[in-house]
Fold Cysteine desulfuration protein SufE.
Amino acid sequence: MTDMPPKLAEIVDEFASAPREVVLEMLLEFADAVPPLPADLAGHEGMEQVPECQTAFFLKAVVQPDDTVVAHFDCPPEAPTTWAFAGILAEGLAGASTGEILAVPDDLYARMGLAQAISPLRVRGGTAILARLKRQVAAQATPVETE
């Protein structure tokens, strides 16, 4: 899967090849992969809510001067599946450039085989998180000059 950062491609391949009965367990392991919010985002100041999620979910993507992206995620602790979606993105996109993030396929969670393990509503929520993350990155990305 060359259309995404190597770490994310590795995560997708692990899920896609895993037996169906362990996919949910694997997913929930990512719930702990989300770094805590920095103090300046406490109270979700400057973060965007993702209304498609069943639970209150907030995100903020910041494009750094070196064109890498730092993403911040937050939701209630009693939403482990939603945390897991964020954890997959946090781990899989760590250090990724704007171009790499914008190239992540929109059907990421379907490629992982999650539709067989969790409800379509939850998959839609995860897909919405990715879409909003990509939209924020695109809004901050510096256009590449062509000659």
In short: The beta strands are 48-49, 58-63, 69-74. The mean pLDDT is 90. The chain is about 45% helix and 10% strand. The CA atoms of residues 10 and 113 lie 14 Å apart.
